[in-house]
Amino acid sequence: MSVLSALNNKFIRRVRNAVESRFWRMRLYLRRKTAAWRSRLFTRKLMIRRLREKEKIKVLFLSHLPAMWKVDSLYLAMLAHPRFEPSIFVIPHGNCATKAERKESLDRIKAFFAQKGYPCEEWINDEGVPKASKLPKEFDILIYPQPWRNVVPPAVDFMRHADHLMICCEYSFHLGTFEWAYNKWYQNMAFVDCYENDAVRELSCRKKYNHGINSVTTGLPIADEFLCSKGVSPWKKQAEGVKKIIWAPHWTIVDGLSDLGSFSNFLSIADELLRYAQASVGRLQFAFKPHPLLKKTLYGHADWGKERTDAYYAAWENGSNTQLEQGDYAALFMESDAMVHDSCSFCCEYMLSGNPVMFIPKNAEAQTSILNEMGLAAFYAQYMGHSVQDIEAFIENQVIRGDDPMKARREEVTSRYLRPPHGLTAAENIINAILGNTPN
Prior knowledge:
This protein is of the alpha/beta class and 440 residues long. The chain contains 16 helices and 13 strands. A seven-stranded parallel β-sheet has the order 3-2-1-4-5-6-7, with helices on both faces. Helix 2 (72-80) packs across helix 16.
């Protein structure tokens, strides 16, 4: 055997040994991971069985922003149910970087619950200090306000509380097709992951790591808020017959703020629309309902900044026929006459009011490309506009004169996709899912 041949054989043996070693190590690793996964599944099933055997089930609702409190009907249903003991912990939003921002965040959410008459406990103070390193073990179920990790302080991160059962009730309808809309860690970890209809639930089963074993068609509590809204009217008193219009701009005013791009038309119509509202005293009443992140985004914009932004918000808040709305908006929607917006999440939410709605698309092709079956149906049940002149025409024709050819299409979207199933509220369906009860 030549020296070259011997070297080749030696090299081949080394490669083979390395590959075999990697193979067996990987096989052992996968066996251990599979065993750990099976162990977690067994533990989870045992936790669920024990939960359903308990006389009292303690549920903790975490809340950081009034606008993201979308589980009101579920909280009230549990409060009235003999087997549930719900509690609320308030926390500052995870994006609050300073003590002043944390204090403002906490003050706003505490005032919100005080107005509702709901008892709540401050779990993290304005210094950013939690009461303990983890949430109390005494709670059987945790319900987070959003399925994102960066919106809550690290001390209450759901990844640190995998020893609790969790319920995922999204703060908005599932309109998109992106995997991240269904396959976040919280959605996979949840004991019950709630969906508004079978079409969306089946989509989640195709997207999720766990193949949707925890996905349940219950309807969303946010639908209950609109369909069962009995709140005090938030609208300023006006003369009889004045039409109530909502303007709800999104926060993505420029590219780079979101992976989805810029969808908001705020910068191009903000000043002109305010002037139109101010000139409509006695005929129209406007509510400015900005996305919670818009104000902070405008603070950092070169042409706006804090002073101009604060003055703009104040102009809406203090006008005789205008108002600023930054909190709960179910009653605002249900007692309005129309809405103008560019936020996809409102496509379905406002549909529940039954009123005409105009969408201001910045890039309709890009926006519709990410929508699922339900999202597309809702999107095309709206009137489309591109300018303040289009908004004026919409108000004159569809709102004041009542020429509303889209009405039947909106009603079809509501009945087919948005109303909770089984003739029950979403809250009742979720409670049944928790207890393992199957509706007739």
